């Protein structure tokens, strides 16, 4: 997979993978799936749900309630809209004790053992690549992208309430995407860009295979 910095491409979603030892008791990593809601809804939930179903002891944290601006529009394009403090509290709660995090949510049996377990957290959101405290956790980063013309066509086929004003995509959506992407690339250059025009099954399989290999590597390291 090649790294790319082309500004003629728009992102659907990104996926960032973190692999670390949480403590002597827990082995964990975080998968962060990011996307730009203003550009397109390009498969973030499909990817996160696919990984969640395939990976044992995984859980999902999604973005929190998005507030409205003074005109009644949802603020998807600023970090303030993400309620990042609340998201970070959830992530830190999981990192402190992922077994208990799952148990409290009824995702594992109350009497199950936490010994030698591997835990995976999937974080869904938008602009989370741009939030430095989260970004500092990430070791592997994937970013799914599609061309500008495909993004624009997909958005034009969707129905919004209220509808987009004239020239909204070119005058606001796309410039905000470029601004946010430029900021993201200033924060980190270690991003693997995935071709969003490839069949979805192919992309899902490729990402899962990377994660599966990392799980095997980390489990082998912990056992040695």
UniProtKB/TrEMBL annotation:
InterPro entries: P-loop_NTPase. This is Nicotinamide riboside kinase 1. SUPFAM superfamilies: P-loop containing nucleoside triphosphate hydrolases.
